[in-house]
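Annotators were shown the component list below and the corresponding predicted structure, then asked to write short factual statements about the assembly.
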Amino acid sequence: MHERQNKYKSRKYIVQTIFVAIAIIFLIRLFILQVVENEYKLSAQNNVLRYVTQYPGRGLIYDRYGELLVFNEACYDLLVIPRQVKDIDTVLLCRLLNISTEDYIKRFQKAKKYSRYKPSIFLEQISREDYGFLEEQLYKFPGFFVQTRTLRKYPHTNAAHILGYIGEVNSNDLEKDEYYTQGDYIGISGIEKFYEKDLRGKKGLKIKMVDVFNREKGSYMDGKYDSLAIAGKDLHLTIDLVLQEYGERLMQNKRGGIVAIEPSTGEILAMVSAPSFDPNLLVGRIRSQNYSMLSGDTLNPLFNRAIMSQYPPGSTFKPISTVIGLNEGVLSTKTKYSCAGENAKPIKCSHNHESPLDLIHAIEQSCNPYFWKVYKSIIEQDKFSTVQEAYDHWGNEVRNFGVGKILKTDISGQKDGNLPTHHYFDGYYGPKGWKAITTRSLSVGQGEIELTPLQLANVAAIFANRGYYYDPHIVKAKGKDKRDNTEYINRTDLPYSKEHFEIAIDGMKLVYEGNHGSARWHRVKGISMCGKTGTAQNPHGASHSVFMAFAPVENPKIAIAVLVENSGYGSTWACPIASLMIRKYIQREFKPTRTEKKILEANLLNVIPEED
Amino acid sequence: MRERKAILYNIDWSMILLFLLMMFFGWINIYSAVFDESHSSIFDFSQRYGKQLIWILAALVLGFFVLIIDSKFFSAFSYIFYGLSIFSLMAVLAIGTEIAGSKSWFQFGRVAIQPSEFAKFATALAVAKYLTGINVNLSHFKHIFRLGLMIGTPAVLILLQGDMGSALVYSAFILVLFREGLSGKVLVVGVIAIALFVFTLLINKFIVMGAILVLLILVFFMIGKQKKSLKWLFIIFIAASGFIYSVDYAFENFLMPHQKKRINIIIGKEHDPKGDGYNLNQSKIAIGSGGFAGKGFLNGTQTKFKFVPEQSTDFIFCTVGEEWGFIGSIIVVGLFLLFLIRIIRLAERQRSRFARIYGYGLASIIFFHFTINIGMTIGLVPVIGIPLPFFSYGGSSLWAFTILLFIFIRQDASRLEIL
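Structure shown to annotators:
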């Protein structure tokens, strides 16, 4: 045992030699790294590397004809690294920046609280002129430096709701996506939010050497570790600025929304929410102040009524009932129902007309009792064993038209409208407590059914196409090479025969062209139009004026829905607005008309007409 | 009572002093690495430096308990410890919690324990125990094979947890075996294997094989064209080619893309300071920027900007390098060298073979951690995440090293007892 131990005892020297060898190799390497080489060394005078983020230009936004809607303008942020700030002339700095000494102290404390070692924004969005003066004297303020940023600018004051706005990231965004750092901008609503990843591009990084006097000493290692910023993608919208601007003008001093769609593609031509605001208000340093002003406004201009407001469709629902009734086989063009006008039960008719009427004339004259009977005949078919089954069958048919569904589209913030299932009525009346007559308001588009203007415009597109629609969307193409946005080319076909749509369309044509049609005063010479008025009762005030339409009848170019809140009959406001929009889109130029003048001058913001 | 006093008297206090110095220096560097303005007290227990203090105090208690246990306890229960370790390594694979990509933790409420840390001393004990057996001889293939199995099993289990760094630690036992009589050729072959490994990855494998062939032919002519040597030269060529081929194959097929990349960066084949090379580049900048005298305590800009990830754990040496400069580097490297040499000295003065072998095990493990950890921060070895003993933040590793060390100190304290 002892022999063997001794035999290898000398090996302890080899082991110790290995230990010493590694230690020596490390020390040589460390000596080279720390003492000899300058590559990894910041100079002994406490030179510091400054990591300057290169912000890419955010993508520009154009309308469908290439008109510029959003661009970028340079501005300057002043950053500070508190640890490097030593013996500066605070008074001079305050004068250059136009801030008070107290403000300076407050801002400096805030930066210090964030970090003494990392740069943070001291004063944001300094104008070009102020920057000019500051730049000359910046060397006097070690620890302070300037970073170029861009602000969004809008040459036109239109489409604020569509475009949305950008603002600084919050802690939530920072947590969700590593790309962002404190002070970065992110799209908060509209297109800016939905297409954030396309628009933002990719940040770059420049590493600069700075000496104690805050002077830049050039790139670190000749820019070996720098990266370039990559600009964001431009977006080309489906919006027609001319139509959008016109729609916003027509809707001035009114509350409501307009959505116009090109039926053959699902491209949204105009989307108006009134009242609107100038998008330039939500830019830069004035943003937070203006934001609280706008959000405090009782008319709620920040609210996008075109996609977020849900209204009963009123009589614009009747063409849907027509198609469903024809499809169920409980209705034909020859079906006639009598109407007792004011005395009709259980639903009265709001106007006098001859009785009985056939289907297309019932659409033309919007006969309520007629469509109550259509609804009743659908629900009370023998094939259903319970009212619940019958009602849900009807409900599912209605949902085929996109009612109660979020449409697949690139507009964020959309509401899904409303159409309850039988559980709602079971809960309200008890499972045995209701039948068709209990839910009769639904037959004329009142009560529990609600649509957003976007959904109603999509219904108009479905009729224009005679039974199908493309996802309504707002971005046509992306990038410099205008690559098509292929995400929204899905076509949805409704399970109804084309002939059934043609019958409903015959009725909708009479709304304009018939002797008793509710839109007969708003015909446009040379354009054949189809439409349907609606007067949406609402429990909170006067009825909303609703209209949906498309034109030309045979080869539709535009489908549209208009809603004017609390303004009464569909034929009074929504119908002429829709007709003018169609005319604008198809004819572009026309002489001012009396109706146009009346609408432009009307102020319906506070008009609450009597309930009828 | 007399025995207790004897232990106190016989304890090697220089080891204890080195141990305390390393923990203290580690602690203040952790403080600097994760320093936070709003929690500036080093005793703030919500921060890592406060927590590390708790781990350190607990380690002292742990060390004390190891010292009062009978010295024969560890050799008697070696295999039991080893068995328990293997069992817990298997259990963690089944019911462990995954932290940072490795399924190697047991979660007890807010405390996570890493059994692979504790398997190190169990393996060291078991190897020592086995080698003290009668008739165990390191020239017998059977014994080498059993030892290989004993060392390899925990390594493979840890590898299965996804913790390559900790698994590689077991290769350090080759030094123990070498001291106990394993042929020196194994060490030489090991070094040649590493060289071939690097060349294979750097250069096309066929070129390396060709070069070896040319070299062997030259050797053949130089030694006078002896027919007898031809057979051996041929066998060497086949073995080398097989090794080269399998390295290439393993590299391409078994390693994860990030592991491949890290190795490529070290051998200079790839340059990627923004991606996988980021840690390394930042680490070198931090250490290099320290200069000769360092920037001073709490004044490291690179580390304060949090450019170097894992700063308080695997990359703690960056803080040392940046704030204490080359002087600090000398101190840390010197401390470790002193510590390692001291362990070897103590191991050699043991009368008990068990204690000596265990001492070598301790030295080898610490040496491996030291080499890989500091080597990676200065770009000499690939980035493999293992802690710097007694320096890096973390309870499990500190406690495991403490137990590992104190078992040895305990053995040494009773070296004068009759065997």
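Statements collected:
1. The first strand of chain A starts at residue 48 and ends at 54.
2. Chain A is about 35% helix and 20% strand.
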